Task: structure prediction
Amino acid sequence: MHTTVLSLLTIIAEAVLKERLIAELMQAGATGYTVWDVEGDGSRRLRSGDAPGENIRLETITSFEVADKLLEKLAHNYFPHYAMIAYTSDVHVVRGDKYV
Amino acid sequence: MFNTLQQNFCSPLTLAFGLGIVAKLIRSDLALPRDAYSTLSIYLLLALGLKGGVELSHAALSEVWAPALATLALGVITPLTSYAVLRKFGRFDAADAAGIAAHYGSVSAVTFIAAQQFALSQGMPAEGYMSTLLTLLESPGIHIALLIGALQSSRDRLAVDAPAPRPTAEVVHEILASRSMVLLVGGLVIGYLTGPTGYEPVKPFFEGLFKGVLTIFLLEMGVMAAARLGDLRAVGVFLIGFGILMPIFHGALAVMLGHAVGMSVGGSAVLGAMAASASYIAAPPAVRMTLPQANPTYYLTASLAITFPFNLLAGIPLYFAFARWLGSGG
Result:
Protein backbone atom coordinates (compact mmCIF):
# COMPACT_ATOMS: atom_id res chain seq x y z
CA MET A 1 0.00 0.00 0.00
CA HIS A 2 1.36 3.39 -0.89
CA THR A 3 1.49 5.71 2.12
CA THR A 4 2.70 9.24 2.77
CA VAL A 5 4.44 10.45 5.91
CA LEU A 6 2.68 13.41 7.54
CA SER A 7 2.68 15.10 10.90
CA LEU A 8 0.14 14.27 13.60
CA LEU A 9 -0.19 17.25 15.89
CA THR A 10 -1.66 16.44 19.31
CA ILE A 11 -2.74 19.17 21.69
CA ILE A 12 -3.99 18.51 25.21
CA ALA A 13 -5.32 21.66 26.79
CA GLU A 14 -7.91 23.10 29.15
CA ALA A 15 -11.40 22.69 27.73
CA VAL A 16 -12.11 26.41 27.83
CA LEU A 17 -9.78 26.81 24.84
CA LYS A 18 -11.61 24.39 22.55
CA GLU A 19 -13.15 26.86 20.10
CA ARG A 20 -10.08 29.04 19.94
CA LEU A 21 -7.71 26.17 19.26
CA ILE A 22 -9.94 24.73 16.54
CA ALA A 23 -10.02 28.15 14.90
CA GLU A 24 -6.21 28.31 15.09
CA LEU A 25 -5.87 24.91 13.40
CA MET A 26 -8.20 25.70 10.56
CA GLN A 27 -6.67 29.13 10.07
CA ALA A 28 -3.20 27.66 9.82
CA GLY A 29 -4.31 25.38 7.03
CA ALA A 30 -5.37 22.12 8.66
CA THR A 31 -8.12 20.40 6.70
CA GLY A 32 -9.77 18.63 9.61
CA TYR A 33 -9.43 17.67 13.25
CA THR A 34 -10.67 15.33 15.95
CA VAL A 35 -11.45 16.52 19.43
CA TRP A 36 -12.53 14.68 22.53
CA ASP A 37 -12.89 15.29 26.25
CA VAL A 38 -10.19 13.87 28.41
CA GLU A 39 -9.23 13.92 32.05
CA GLY A 40 -5.87 14.30 33.60
CA ASP A 41 -3.61 16.28 35.80
CA GLY A 42 -0.40 18.15 35.38
CA SER A 43 1.86 20.80 36.75
CA ARG A 44 -0.80 23.51 36.75
CA ARG A 45 -3.51 21.64 38.63
CA LEU A 46 -6.44 24.03 38.50
CA ARG A 47 -8.56 24.61 35.45
CA SER A 48 -11.66 26.64 34.88
CA GLY A 49 -14.38 25.08 32.79
CA ASP A 50 -17.87 25.09 34.25
CA ALA A 51 -16.95 21.79 35.82
CA PRO A 52 -13.34 22.34 36.85
CA GLY A 53 -10.62 19.98 35.76
CA GLU A 54 -11.68 19.28 32.20
CA ASN A 55 -9.30 18.94 29.33
CA ILE A 56 -9.63 18.37 25.63
CA ARG A 57 -7.43 16.40 23.31
CA LEU A 58 -7.29 17.85 19.85
CA GLU A 59 -5.58 16.14 16.95
CA THR A 60 -4.95 16.98 13.36
CA ILE A 61 -2.93 15.35 10.60
CA THR A 62 -1.22 17.92 8.48
CA SER A 63 1.92 18.86 6.60
CA PHE A 64 5.16 19.32 8.53
CA GLU A 65 5.16 23.04 7.74
CA VAL A 66 1.67 23.66 9.09
CA ALA A 67 2.33 21.56 12.20
CA ASP A 68 5.50 23.48 12.84
CA LYS A 69 3.82 26.83 12.37
CA LEU A 70 1.09 25.79 14.79
CA LEU A 71 3.53 24.59 17.43
CA GLU A 72 5.32 27.88 17.28
CA LYS A 73 2.09 29.82 17.65
CA LEU A 74 0.95 27.68 20.58
CA ALA A 75 4.28 28.07 22.32
CA HIS A 76 4.13 31.83 21.97
CA ASN A 77 0.45 32.60 22.59
CA TYR A 78 -0.74 29.85 24.89
CA PHE A 79 2.02 28.03 26.73
CA PRO A 80 2.87 30.91 29.08
CA HIS A 81 -0.58 31.07 30.63
CA TYR A 82 -2.58 27.95 29.94
CA ALA A 83 -2.36 24.35 30.99
CA MET A 84 -1.42 22.78 27.69
CA ILE A 85 0.94 20.36 26.06
CA ALA A 86 1.43 19.82 22.34
CA TYR A 87 3.60 17.46 20.37
CA THR A 88 3.95 16.03 16.91
CA SER A 89 4.58 12.53 15.71
CA ASP A 90 5.02 11.06 12.27
CA VAL A 91 2.17 9.06 10.84
CA HIS A 92 1.80 7.07 7.65
CA VAL A 93 -1.43 7.77 5.86
CA VAL A 94 -3.19 6.59 2.76
CA ARG A 95 -4.45 9.37 0.46
CA GLY A 96 -1.77 11.83 1.58
CA ASP A 97 -3.24 14.70 -0.47
CA LYS A 98 -6.39 14.65 1.68
CA TYR A 99 -4.56 16.33 4.55
CA VAL A 100 -2.64 19.16 2.93
CA MET B 1 -31.71 35.82 64.25
CA PHE B 2 -30.57 32.60 65.92
CA ASN B 3 -33.79 30.89 64.97
CA THR B 4 -33.50 31.93 61.35
CA LEU B 5 -29.94 30.64 61.23
CA GLN B 6 -31.03 27.35 62.70
CA GLN B 7 -33.89 27.04 60.22
CA ASN B 8 -31.48 27.77 57.41
CA PHE B 9 -29.00 25.12 58.59
CA CYS B 10 -31.75 22.54 58.73
CA SER B 11 -33.15 23.06 55.24
CA PRO B 12 -32.59 20.19 52.77
CA LEU B 13 -30.65 22.59 50.53
CA THR B 14 -28.05 23.46 53.12
CA LEU B 15 -27.83 19.91 54.41
CA ALA B 16 -27.36 18.52 50.89
CA PHE B 17 -24.53 21.00 50.40
CA GLY B 18 -23.03 19.80 53.67
CA LEU B 19 -23.39 16.18 52.57
CA GLY B 20 -21.48 16.98 49.39
CA ILE B 21 -18.65 18.43 51.46
CA VAL B 22 -18.60 15.42 53.78
CA ALA B 23 -18.62 13.03 50.81
CA LYS B 24 -15.57 14.72 49.37
CA LEU B 25 -13.79 14.82 52.71
CA ILE B 26 -14.24 11.11 53.34
CA ARG B 27 -13.08 10.52 49.76
CA SER B 28 -16.32 9.01 48.59
CA ASP B 29 -16.65 8.45 44.84
CA LEU B 30 -19.81 10.58 44.84
CA ALA B 31 -19.88 13.12 42.02
CA LEU B 32 -22.64 14.15 39.69
CA PRO B 33 -21.88 12.96 36.14
CA ARG B 34 -20.88 15.89 33.99
CA ASP B 35 -23.83 15.65 31.67
CA ALA B 36 -26.24 15.47 34.59
CA TYR B 37 -24.64 18.59 36.03
CA SER B 38 -25.16 20.41 32.73
CA THR B 39 -28.73 19.15 32.41
CA LEU B 40 -29.67 20.19 35.92
CA SER B 41 -28.17 23.63 35.47
CA ILE B 42 -30.15 24.04 32.23
CA TYR B 43 -33.32 23.04 34.08
CA LEU B 44 -32.68 25.44 36.95
CA LEU B 45 -31.84 28.41 34.77
CA LEU B 46 -34.74 27.88 32.38
CA ALA B 47 -37.18 27.36 35.27
CA LEU B 48 -35.89 30.58 36.79
CA GLY B 49 -36.31 32.48 33.53
CA LEU B 50 -39.79 31.11 32.85
CA LYS B 51 -41.12 31.86 36.30
CA GLY B 52 -39.65 35.35 36.16
CA GLY B 53 -41.13 35.97 32.72
CA VAL B 54 -44.62 34.91 33.83
CA GLU B 55 -44.39 37.22 36.84
CA LEU B 56 -43.07 40.00 34.66
CA SER B 57 -46.09 39.66 32.36
CA HIS B 58 -48.29 41.05 35.11
CA ALA B 59 -45.85 43.50 36.63
CA ALA B 60 -46.12 47.18 35.80
CA LEU B 61 -43.12 48.85 34.21
CA SER B 62 -43.32 51.60 36.82
CA GLU B 63 -42.72 48.96 39.45
CA VAL B 64 -39.64 47.47 37.82
CA TRP B 65 -37.54 50.33 36.52
CA ALA B 66 -36.18 51.65 39.82
CA PRO B 67 -35.06 48.21 41.10
CA ALA B 68 -33.58 47.57 37.64
CA LEU B 69 -31.53 50.77 37.85
CA ALA B 70 -30.43 49.93 41.38
CA THR B 71 -29.31 46.50 40.13
CA LEU B 72 -27.31 48.00 37.27
CA ALA B 73 -25.69 50.41 39.71
CA LEU B 74 -24.70 47.44 41.87
CA GLY B 75 -23.29 45.72 38.78
CA VAL B 76 -20.97 48.70 38.33
CA ILE B 77 -20.10 49.30 41.98
CA THR B 78 -19.31 45.77 43.15
CA PRO B 79 -16.45 45.02 40.72
CA LEU B 80 -14.90 48.44 41.42
CA THR B 81 -15.00 48.13 45.22
CA SER B 82 -13.69 44.56 44.97
CA TYR B 83 -10.85 45.62 42.69
CA ALA B 84 -9.90 48.58 44.87
CA VAL B 85 -9.87 46.53 48.07
CA LEU B 86 -7.86 43.72 46.49
CA ARG B 87 -5.27 46.09 45.04
CA LYS B 88 -4.95 48.43 47.98
CA PHE B 89 -5.23 46.14 50.97
CA GLY B 90 -4.60 42.73 49.47
CA ARG B 91 -1.62 43.83 47.35
CA PHE B 92 -2.78 41.66 44.46
CA ASP B 93 -1.41 42.45 41.00
CA ALA B 94 -3.74 43.96 38.42
CA ALA B 95 -4.62 40.71 36.69
CA ASP B 96 -5.36 38.74 39.85
CA ALA B 97 -7.36 41.59 41.37
CA ALA B 98 -9.39 42.02 38.18
CA GLY B 99 -9.94 38.28 37.90
CA ILE B 100 -11.35 38.08 41.41
CA ALA B 101 -13.31 41.33 40.97
CA ALA B 102 -15.01 39.88 37.87
CA HIS B 103 -16.32 37.04 40.01
CA TYR B 104 -17.58 39.31 42.78
CA GLY B 105 -19.08 41.75 40.29
CA SER B 106 -21.14 38.99 38.72
CA VAL B 107 -23.78 36.91 40.44
CA SER B 108 -24.30 33.30 41.49
CA ALA B 109 -27.65 31.98 40.30
CA VAL B 110 -27.72 29.25 42.93
CA THR B 111 -27.17 31.77 45.73
CA PHE B 112 -29.99 33.80 44.22
CA ILE B 113 -32.32 30.79 44.16
CA ALA B 114 -31.39 29.82 47.71
CA ALA B 115 -32.12 33.38 48.86
CA GLN B 116 -35.45 33.35 47.07
CA GLN B 117 -36.38 30.05 48.73
CA PHE B 118 -35.28 31.41 52.09
CA ALA B 119 -37.42 34.55 51.76
CA LEU B 120 -40.33 32.33 50.78
CA SER B 121 -39.83 30.11 53.81
CA GLN B 122 -39.89 33.20 56.02
CA GLY B 123 -43.26 34.14 54.59
CA MET B 124 -41.89 37.25 52.88
CA PRO B 125 -41.41 36.23 49.23
CA ALA B 126 -39.39 38.47 46.93
CA GLU B 127 -40.96 40.30 44.01
CA GLY B 128 -41.73 38.26 40.90
CA TYR B 129 -39.44 40.29 38.67
CA MET B 130 -36.30 39.27 40.57
CA SER B 131 -35.05 36.97 37.79
CA THR B 132 -35.02 39.98 35.47
CA LEU B 133 -32.69 41.68 37.92
CA LEU B 134 -30.55 38.55 37.98
CA THR B 135 -29.94 38.77 34.22
CA LEU B 136 -29.10 42.47 34.58
CA LEU B 137 -26.52 41.76 37.25
CA GLU B 138 -24.87 38.84 35.51
CA SER B 139 -22.66 40.50 32.95
CA PRO B 140 -21.74 44.17 33.65
CA GLY B 141 -19.49 43.24 36.55
CA ILE B 142 -17.52 40.77 34.45
CA HIS B 143 -17.05 43.27 31.63
CA ILE B 144 -15.96 46.08 33.89
CA ALA B 145 -13.46 43.98 35.81
CA LEU B 146 -12.04 42.43 32.66
CA LEU B 147 -11.69 45.84 31.10
CA ILE B 148 -9.75 47.17 34.08
CA GLY B 149 -7.60 44.08 34.08
CA ALA B 150 -6.87 44.26 30.37
CA LEU B 151 -6.00 47.96 30.53
CA GLN B 152 -3.78 47.59 33.58
CA SER B 153 -1.94 44.53 32.38
CA SER B 154 -1.31 45.96 28.92
CA ARG B 155 0.27 48.95 30.64
CA ASP B 156 2.39 46.61 32.77
CA ARG B 157 3.84 44.70 29.85
CA LEU B 158 4.19 47.30 27.10
CA ALA B 159 7.72 46.36 26.15
CA VAL B 160 7.40 42.66 26.72
CA ASP B 161 6.89 40.30 23.82
CA ALA B 162 3.38 39.55 24.96
CA PRO B 163 0.78 37.37 23.24
CA ALA B 164 -1.88 39.30 21.34
CA PRO B 165 -4.83 40.26 23.56
CA ARG B 166 -8.27 39.04 22.64
CA PRO B 167 -10.66 41.35 20.81
CA THR B 168 -13.25 42.85 23.16
CA ALA B 169 -16.09 41.92 20.82
CA GLU B 170 -15.20 38.27 21.30
CA VAL B 171 -15.40 38.58 25.07
CA VAL B 172 -18.70 40.44 24.97
CA HIS B 173 -20.16 37.86 22.62
CA GLU B 174 -18.96 35.03 24.80
CA ILE B 175 -20.72 36.31 27.90
CA LEU B 176 -23.91 37.42 26.17
CA ALA B 177 -24.22 34.20 24.20
CA SER B 178 -23.27 32.00 27.14
CA ARG B 179 -25.59 29.19 28.12
CA SER B 180 -26.76 30.82 31.35
CA MET B 181 -27.54 34.11 29.62
CA VAL B 182 -29.47 32.47 26.76
CA LEU B 183 -31.50 30.32 29.17
CA LEU B 184 -32.31 33.14 31.55
CA VAL B 185 -33.19 35.74 28.95
CA GLY B 186 -34.86 33.16 26.71
CA GLY B 187 -36.88 31.84 29.64
CA LEU B 188 -37.94 35.36 30.57
CA VAL B 189 -39.14 36.02 27.03
CA ILE B 190 -41.00 32.69 26.79
CA GLY B 191 -42.59 33.18 30.21
CA TYR B 192 -43.54 36.74 29.36
CA LEU B 193 -45.12 35.74 26.04
CA THR B 194 -47.00 32.71 27.36
CA GLY B 195 -48.25 34.36 30.54
CA PRO B 196 -49.87 32.43 33.39
CA THR B 197 -52.26 30.39 31.20
CA GLY B 198 -49.60 29.24 28.76
CA TYR B 199 -47.29 28.44 31.65
CA GLU B 200 -49.86 26.27 33.40
CA PRO B 201 -49.16 22.96 31.53
CA VAL B 202 -45.40 23.06 32.15
CA LYS B 203 -45.69 24.43 35.65
CA PRO B 204 -45.68 21.05 37.48
CA PHE B 205 -42.40 20.15 35.84
CA PHE B 206 -40.66 23.47 36.35
CA GLU B 207 -42.02 24.34 39.78
CA GLY B 208 -42.99 21.05 41.36
CA LEU B 209 -39.57 19.49 40.83
CA PHE B 210 -37.60 22.68 41.35
CA LYS B 211 -36.58 22.26 44.97
CA GLY B 212 -35.68 18.61 44.49
CA VAL B 213 -33.44 19.37 41.55
CA LEU B 214 -31.90 22.23 43.46
CA THR B 215 -31.13 19.85 46.33
CA ILE B 216 -29.23 17.49 44.03
CA PHE B 217 -27.44 20.45 42.47
CA LEU B 218 -26.33 21.69 45.88
CA LEU B 219 -25.02 18.24 46.70
CA GLU B 220 -22.70 18.58 43.72
CA MET B 221 -21.84 22.15 44.71
CA GLY B 222 -20.73 20.76 48.06
CA VAL B 223 -18.45 18.28 46.34
CA MET B 224 -17.03 21.05 44.13
CA ALA B 225 -16.51 23.43 47.03
CA ALA B 226 -14.84 20.76 49.13
CA ALA B 227 -12.47 19.97 46.26
CA ARG B 228 -11.11 23.49 46.71
CA LEU B 229 -10.80 23.42 50.49
CA GLY B 230 -7.20 22.28 50.22
CA ASP B 231 -6.42 25.49 48.35
CA LEU B 232 -7.52 27.66 51.26
CA ARG B 233 -3.99 27.51 52.59
CA ALA B 234 -2.63 28.64 49.23
CA VAL B 235 -4.87 31.70 48.94
CA GLY B 236 -3.97 33.12 52.34
CA VAL B 237 -5.82 34.76 55.18
CA PHE B 238 -6.50 37.99 53.32
CA LEU B 239 -8.56 36.36 50.59
CA ILE B 240 -10.49 34.28 53.12
CA GLY B 241 -11.41 37.46 54.97
CA PHE B 242 -12.21 39.17 51.69
CA GLY B 243 -14.51 36.29 50.69
CA ILE B 244 -16.58 36.88 53.81
CA LEU B 245 -16.38 40.62 54.49
CA MET B 246 -16.77 41.85 50.91
CA PRO B 247 -20.09 39.98 50.50
CA ILE B 248 -21.35 41.42 53.79
CA PHE B 249 -20.48 44.93 52.60
CA HIS B 250 -22.01 44.45 49.15
CA GLY B 251 -25.02 42.68 50.65
CA ALA B 252 -25.70 45.49 53.10
CA LEU B 253 -25.30 48.08 50.37
CA ALA B 254 -27.74 46.23 48.12
CA VAL B 255 -30.30 45.77 50.89
CA MET B 256 -30.20 49.51 51.55
CA LEU B 257 -30.50 50.29 47.86
CA GLY B 258 -33.37 47.85 47.49
CA HIS B 259 -35.10 49.37 50.47
CA ALA B 260 -34.52 52.87 49.10
CA VAL B 261 -36.16 52.06 45.75
CA GLY B 262 -39.19 50.63 47.51
CA MET B 263 -38.61 46.90 47.30
CA SER B 264 -40.18 44.57 49.84
CA VAL B 265 -38.24 43.02 52.72
CA GLY B 266 -37.91 39.73 50.81
CA GLY B 267 -36.94 41.54 47.62
CA SER B 268 -34.24 43.68 49.25
CA ALA B 269 -32.85 40.62 51.02
CA VAL B 270 -32.64 38.66 47.76
CA LEU B 271 -31.05 41.66 46.05
CA GLY B 272 -28.56 41.71 48.91
CA ALA B 273 -27.73 38.05 48.38
CA MET B 274 -27.33 38.68 44.64
CA ALA B 275 -24.89 41.53 45.10
CA ALA B 276 -23.05 39.61 47.80
CA SER B 277 -22.66 36.48 45.71
CA ALA B 278 -19.73 35.65 43.47
CA SER B 279 -20.15 33.95 40.12
CA TYR B 280 -18.58 30.58 39.48
CA ILE B 281 -20.27 29.64 36.21
CA ALA B 282 -20.14 32.65 33.89
CA ALA B 283 -17.06 34.37 35.22
CA PRO B 284 -14.37 31.65 35.39
CA PRO B 285 -14.19 30.79 31.68
CA ALA B 286 -14.45 34.46 30.70
CA VAL B 287 -11.62 35.41 33.02
CA ARG B 288 -9.53 32.41 32.02
CA MET B 289 -9.80 33.35 28.35
CA THR B 290 -9.31 37.08 28.70
CA LEU B 291 -6.95 37.41 31.65
CA PRO B 292 -4.96 34.19 31.49
CA GLN B 293 -2.25 35.64 33.70
CA ALA B 294 -4.70 35.77 36.63
CA ASN B 295 -4.26 32.75 38.87
CA PRO B 296 -7.46 30.59 38.82
CA THR B 297 -6.69 29.25 42.30
CA TYR B 298 -7.48 32.67 43.75
CA TYR B 299 -10.77 33.39 42.07
CA LEU B 300 -12.16 29.87 42.05
CA THR B 301 -11.31 29.18 45.67
CA ALA B 302 -12.60 32.53 46.87
CA SER B 303 -15.88 32.29 45.04
CA LEU B 304 -16.58 28.57 45.40
CA ALA B 305 -14.99 27.54 48.70
CA ILE B 306 -15.42 30.73 50.72
CA THR B 307 -18.13 33.07 49.50
CA PHE B 308 -20.66 30.55 48.26
CA PRO B 309 -20.77 28.50 51.50
CA PHE B 310 -20.70 31.66 53.58
CA ASN B 311 -23.69 33.12 51.78
CA LEU B 312 -25.59 29.86 51.84
CA LEU B 313 -25.09 29.28 55.55
CA ALA B 314 -24.93 32.70 57.14
CA GLY B 315 -25.06 35.46 54.52
CA ILE B 316 -28.61 34.97 53.32
CA PRO B 317 -30.17 34.96 56.82
CA LEU B 318 -28.01 37.97 57.64
CA TYR B 319 -29.16 40.05 54.64
CA PHE B 320 -32.69 38.99 55.40
CA ALA B 321 -32.45 40.07 59.03
CA PHE B 322 -31.00 43.41 57.95
CA ALA B 323 -33.74 43.91 55.38
CA ARG B 324 -36.39 43.13 57.97
CA TRP B 325 -34.82 45.54 60.43
CA LEU B 326 -34.74 48.30 57.78
CA GLY B 327 -38.28 47.41 56.73
CA SER B 328 -39.56 47.71 60.27
CA GLY B 329 -38.40 51.31 60.38
CA GLY B 330 -34.75 50.71 61.34
